[in-house]
Design brief:
With 442 residues, the protein is α/β, with parallel strands linked by helices. It contains 16 helices and 13 strands. The structure holds uracil. Residues 116, 170, 179, 184-185, 188-189 line the site of uracil.
Length: 442
């Protein structure tokens, strides 16, 4: 490949000067990244140019196709059911995937859900699932198919061969602070979903202080770009902008969130979490043609959560992923401390990121990708946003190990919340729906 350095230099120069990357060049570059044949300096140079100049819509579509083509697409040809998935941009207490994937499987879909790990203030679905003893999430393609045959759903990590260029570039972006870029985020997420070979996708794009997208306009642009990108790649996608200014549900922390998810799978659980699982499930069942309308889809999801069939799928899934006893109680943190209100007021969240970091301070989060996490620690709130609290009431119970990180956890909780003299105005969980439409230039 004697022309390699020239081709590479040409495309680096094109993007550096604000030009448009041709699809053939994007495919070539991404293949070289997947093969480990491009140096990190050159990768960072191109990523920085994309970060600062953005991408035109056709250019972004070509780049995303290149990410998919850098590896393999899952072969799910043996499954006759519609194939669907959901992706969330992540937030504090966001455990929707855990009850939703088995509920969709119980409703007649196949759900090959490739998920991520937590970093910073948010927890990751894979880390939560690994709070169950024995469960493995690093599955190969054959194992993914076997779990799907057993349960109709799987929740696992990106394999070696799914969008390998994204795997390399996302890890590098994380190291050099190049994550927050609309074209880079949307192509990264959508390429993995397209490589799952799904028919329909619903995106839960979080907005608020517990999300990495704090502003509504920014979240709307990310949602619209991803919906359009997925559509251009042949996957029917819609999105919901949902609020992340208060935790979803009452529990934050890996084991505690599995327990809350199982409550939802038993037809119980907090109303906001049940609402979102049902809503996103209804969107997908209608998009996949399993339900005649979204309303009918929501009724189906409510039914499978209440009649135990979704719980059965969940237990089959975790057993197929290695859990020796799917119903065994999970290991709990040995110590509990109440977080006590220091005055009267109405609970509100000033900065939800601090609440997520409060769990990380106990050992339940990572600062770096390689950090180990303590699954058992976390926080169970006794109040929702807007609830009245009296001085001396327990607002939440903190689950910890011998006080490790407790002081910092309490400091972050005090900083991230307030006890306001007046009740904060109620905020609907769902802000708006985003449907496919002509692209706005990033
Ligand atoms: N999640 C991803 O998979 N990729 C990004 O770039 C950001 C979030």
């Amino acid at each position: 490949m004697t022309d390699t350095p020239f081709r590479l230099r040409d495309l680096l120069r094109t993007k550096r000067d604000g030009g448009v990357l041709g699809e053939a060049d994007a495919h070539w570059f991404l293949k070289q990244v997947a093969l480990g044949a491009v140096g990190e300096a050159e990768q960072v140079a191109l990523l920085s140019s994309i970060f600062f100049h953005g991408m035109e819509s056709g250019e972004l579509e070509g780049w995303t196709r290149g990410m998919v083509a850098s590896g393999d697409v899952l072969d799910l040809s043996g499954f006759e059911q519609p194939r669907v998935d959901k992706h969330s941009t992540g937030g504090v207490g966001d455990k929707v995937s855990l009850p939703l994937a088995p509920a969709l499987a119980a409703a007649g879909c196949v759900v090959p859900m490739i998920s991520g790990r937590g970093l910073g203030h948010t927890g990751g679905t894979l880390d939560k699932l690994e709070a169950i003893p024995g469960v493995r999430t690093d599955l190969d393609e054959g194992e993914i198919r076997r779990v799907l045959q057993a349960a109709g759903c799987v929740i696992c990590a990106q394999t070696e061969s799914i969008a390998p260029a994204d795997r390399a570039l996302y890890a590098l972006r994380d190291r050099v602070e190049l994550v927050e870029s609309l074209p880079l985020i949307s192509s990264s997420i959508v390429s993995k979903k397209v490589a799952e070979d799904i028919d329909a996708l619903v995106l839960d794009v979080k907005v608020g202080t517990g999300s990495f997208l704090v502003e509504e306009a920014e979240a709307r642009a990310v949602a619209q770009t991803m919906v359009n990108l997925a559509g251009a790649a042949g996957v029917h996608a819609t999105a919901r902008l949902t609020r992340m200014g208060q935790p979803l549900g009452l529990s934050i922390g890996h084991t505690l969130e599995i327990e809350e998810s199982v409550a939802v799978l038993k037809g119980e659980g907090p109303a906001d979490l049940v609402e979102l699982v049902t809503l996103l499930g209804g969107d997908l069942l209608a998009a996949a043609g399993v339900a005649a309308s979204e309303e009918a889809g929501r009724a189906t999801i409510s039914g499978v959560l209440r009649d135990g069939t979704a719980l059965d799928r969940f237990e089959r899934m975790i057993a197929a992923q290695g859990a020796s006893d799917p119903q065994a109680p999970l290991e709990q943190a040995p110590d509990r401390t109440q977080w006590i209100a220091s005055r009267d007021g109405y609970l509100d969240f000033r900065n939800l990121r601090d609440v997520g970091l409060a769990v990380a301070a106990l050992g339940g989060g990572r600062k770096n990708a390689e950090d180990q996490i303590d699954h058992a620690v976390g926080i169970v709130s006794h109040r929702f946003r807007g609830d009245e609290v009296r001085c001396g009431d327990a607002i939440a119970t903190i689950h910890h190990r011998a006080g490790a990180g407790l002081e910092e956890c309490l400091r972050l909780l005090e900083r991230g919340t307030s006890l306001a003299p007046d009740a904060p105005s109620p905020q609907p969980l769902v802000l708006e729906r985003v449907l496919p439409r002509p692209t706005i230039s990033p």
